[in-house]
Amino acid sequence: MDNTELDSTQFTILGLTGSGKTCYLLGMYKKMAAGMKGFSLTTDSDTDVNLRRRYRRMEDQSLGINRFPAGTDQPDSYSFTLSHAMESIMSFDWIDYPGGALDEQTSGNLEAFNKLESHIQNSSSLFICVDGELINGDDCDEIAENIKDKCSGIINNFLKRYKDKNKFLPPTAIVVTKCDMCQELEDDEWEEILREAFSPILAEGNDKCNRFVCCIPVSLGSEISSNGYKGILKPRNLELPIYMGIYFSTMCKAICLRKKMEFYKKQLNSLRNETQKEENSFFIWRDNEKIAKNKEMEDIYRKLEKEITENFVSVLADNSRLSEVLNKKVEMIFFNGKRQETFENTADDFIEKTPEFLNKWQSKNEKS
Asked: Residue 35: inside a domain, yes or no?
């Protein structure tokens, strides 16, 4: 791997028109650009100006509901870099697309549909955007049917096609936007709704295709819709889906770096043994030129091992910071349909048991 190049990954947020994808993007960037516990998000200057301008409009309470962006009519791609203490961790690509594109295959715009399908297939993590307005009422079955009708009924097809092509499902977060508008639900009621609305990925009893799924409620403000949509923006949890996606990618990076460390250690030991054997040979037969070349190679491998070890330690530190937040704030986690206790252990279990996921990340980022 060329350590001078920043590793990258790709995320896609799946949601129909009005589900809050664009508002989430604007709020997430504004919050993360300012920095949170040492983590920050950056992008190119034109994108930075564009996203900040659009967020400022959302802050204008005098506009009422018009402060929020209309549905996206053209797909827009963005590239971001997540850093900690001003040191880059990983870059990721993001696409904001018209919600209707999920259904364009049957309504005419095949080009938009195919572009979105390609982006989904190349993503290392998927975020399913569920409009919190759908989660109203006190009948869990009715809410689940509402989500199926307005969201999961279409999105499940994309997940199935991803699985059929890649032979695994990527880590997936169900991102409940506008969670401030949701009916107050108990934990078991949330789980009941999710299991019914997304039963294909949350069903128990099938371990042939490993499935990591978590639920992350997010909001732009607890009373943002009050008084004619004149509430103050107070973003909450918007960073968590990004932390989740980056965690999986940095864990893949750590595994690849560990394998390289082991390789260089093995090469060093082999060279040292060979050099020592040559140095201990009878002086008439001793090959001093070979000894000199071996020692040059030892220096090269030692330097490479040192660089990779330093990189490995840095990645583990990044993972630890991310997992500390995720373990604390992400509470509803499933592995192969079974409810789990902690994010970190479940995520690591998924990577260990899903070599296809690691191979896909490695093929995208390994340069040599």
From this structure: yes
Q: Can you tell me the mean pLDDT for 261-275?
A: 86
341 Cβ neighbours under 8 A, 6+ residues apart: 333
CATH code for the domain in which residue 58 is found: 3.40.50.300
Tally of domains within the chain: 1
The DSSP annotation for 27-94 comes to: HHHHHHHH-BTTEEEE--HHHHHHHHHHHHHHH-GGGGGGGSPPPP-S-EEEEEEEEETTEEEEEEEE
Confidence of residue 226 (pLDDT cuts 50, 70, 90): confident
Amino acid at 28: M
Q: Count helices and strands (H / E) in the chain.
A: 13, 9
Mean pLDDT over residues 286-295, rounded?
79
Give dist(CA 303, CA 306) in Å, integer: 5
Q: Is residue 287 part of a domain?
A: no
What is the distance between the alpha carbons of residues 129 and 132, in angstroms, rounded to a whole number?
Answer: 9
- Token duo for residue 308: 């990779």
180 located within any domain = yes
| Alpha carbon distance 22, 244 (integer Å) | 19
Task: Please state, rounded to an integer, the average pLDDT across all residues of the chain.
Answer: 87
**Which residues constitute the domain of residue 42?**
8-250
Residue 277 has phi, psi (to 5 degrees) of -65, -40
Portion of the chain with pLDDT greater than 70, in percent: 94
What tokens does 367 get? 């340069």
